[in-house]
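Q: My labmate handed me this sequence with no annotations at all. I'd like to see what the chain might look like in three dimensions before we decide whether it's worth expressing. Could you predict it?
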Amino acid sequence: MTTVVPTSEEDAALSIVRFASELAWADAGPEVAEPQVSRLCLEAQEFIVMGKWLELASLMITSAELIFSKVSEKDIESIFTIICNLVTKIENTDEVMEIVKVITEKIVQQPNEKPAVRLKILINLYNLLETPYCQFYVYMNVLTFAIDGKVTEYIIPSFKKIDSFLKDWKIGIPEQRELFLTVSNILKENKSMSKDAFKFLTNYLATFVEEDVDVLSEAKEEAARAIVEFVRAPDIFQCDLLDLPAIGKLEKDEKYAPLYTLLKIFLTQRLDAYIDYHAANSTLLKSYGLVHEECISKMRLISLVDLSTDGSCQIPYELIRDTLQINDDEVELWVIRAITSKLIDCRMDQMNQVIVVSRPTDRVFGQHQWHALRTKLGSWRGNIANVISTIQANKITDDGSQTAQ
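A: Here is what I predict for the chain of 405 residues:
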């Protein structure tokens, strides 16, 4: 027989059990309700005394779910704050995970019933956790629930902290893939966040480095999607997709090889190459929702950037006209578009009919560009170190001269 130590009804967990069970059984009448309420409270007391927090959590959340639709959102938050707080009473991480699963699984079962408050409960649970993997588990459930409950606007701000989260969670590659792809899928539904969606999709593909052929095949559809999103995006002109093995796998793929060719055109060639490609693949482009006129516009800007990286700081209007396949009176308009898109720094010399480029933009930013940047930064660091040394040497000389005087 279990010995029950009397517990004050001021105990928060016991108060929740009593409140929830009384409300849940209210319609059954006092003769039926009172024995049931007493039984549930007695069970709760036993669990509290014996430190059976998992059993207590299961009891409390079952009662709480029964009254979810009967009480205010404020009351629901208060009830689940007490339930979630049970995770702080346990030191064993496996037991913490068990309680986390019990709470999370119940919360996400009804995404269309008070989704905002359910999301708050999950976030509150996350904030109470100290175990990294438990935090990751809850966060992924937050993302999935936000999608199902159509409340993604509440969790999008947290995406700015993903890098910090990853440092804390220390999760493996499979978990990172799941995270990046889920975040990208959420963001792609928001047209104003297409750049961020593309960034997380690229992060996802970047995890498939040094994988065998079978694993790379898992990313085939997402790799194709990344190409389409890059080509479609009117404000993304630079990427390192060609350096990714998951993208390279498409080069010899029967279905996606034409997309790989399209990507190479957008990253390494000019408008004339795209025109030829379109002539042979117009149906394919339409099947991916790519608009020919939009592709032409983007390729013109890309081609202008390519002209600026040829090594000459002066580009004749005539060359721009022929390369972009435009009229004479459109040259300056396209130069202005490139400047406002921050693709090139230049000035227009209308007298001599040339543009003078001061800073071009690399179309591809891969290993070669990173190496060049590292070399440049190293040179700058060396120059700064020399300047500091010279200043210190002069200061010592000046101090010595003043002492001698």
